[in-house]
Amino acid sequence: TLRHLPKVICAFEKKGIPTVLLKGVAMAVRYYDDVGKRPMADLDVLVPTEQSDAAIQVLLETGWLPQGRTVDQLSAPYRIPHHAMGFGHEGLKMSLDLHWHVSFAHLHYAYDEPFWTAATPIQLDSVATHVLCPTDQVIHTCFNGLHHELGNNIRWLPDVLCVFAREPEIDWDRFVVQCQRLAITLPMQDVMEYLRTVWDVPVPISVINALAATSVSYRARQLSQSVMTWTWDRTWLQVFWLLYNQYLSTTHAPLPGTLRGTGPGATGWLQPLGFIRFLQQRWGVDSAQTMWKGGMERVLKRFQKSREYQT
Description:
The chain has helices at residues 5-14, 23-30, 52-61, 76-79, 109-118, 134-146, 156-166, 172-182, 185-199, 205-213, 218-227, 236-251, 272-283, 288-310; strands spanning 20-21, 43-46, 65-66, 84-89, 94-99, 120-124, 127-131. It is of the alpha+beta class and 311 residues long. A hairpin with a 2-residue loop joins strand 6 (120-124) and strand 7 (127-131). Helix 9 (185-199) packs antiparallel against helix 10, helix 11 packs across helix 12 and helix 12 crosses helix 13. The longest helix has 23 residues, at 288-310. The two termini are 35 Å apart. The model is unreliable at 260-273 and 287-296 (pLDDT under 50).
């Protein structure tokens, strides 16, 4: 899989599109002595949000096709409530997730900017790309590990232990500020306490105390609980909080530690008009009739999947 990655990065580079490697591929090339020790199902590549259209065009021109979607569903309006989309290459027999946001829960370019600014340049064969800086890698790895979309993602633990083993000088001040900016201090406090007490990771107690002392909004608390609940155990309210937070993050820049936006309409975010716009954006519809039909289809589909899992 990795032998084809430089060609993908080179195709982006020729169009002036910078890249950051994420998740398994970043861990394999940066932190594991033997890339074969880090299994991965696909490649994860981040591009700037404003260049996502150009990046998708590069993939289409080089034989990549969207997985589970039509080409028409690659348009910018359709992509708004998503942080990434999967592509497959029939000839290469491999998959690639193209990301235009770092986090699935933070869909505004303002969340991504600090990750890009601090990204570490690396060489992949003769091609230049980036990985997240060590501090951001810890945050990204731990937060993704908490997201039980496909069950318990236990790979986060050896990954983060690898980062700490290879990068002992973590910028803990940055760590706290980033967690506050992303409003994930609540789950990250638990993770850091676990790593410190069970795995003897040298997390300063002052960092844990700083996370604990950060004010957490009701919406951020609900988001954290939703993320940490396995997908089929989530209540309908938890699903709502997860998806509605994604919607809000697409339209309003963050205020540190609050998940409260600064754009027009950022206050009173649960008003009926805002909720209707959320449904229209999430489902890609423009009329009440289509929205109602689409909503019922999704309810029935989720119910069917839940029944299949239980049996």
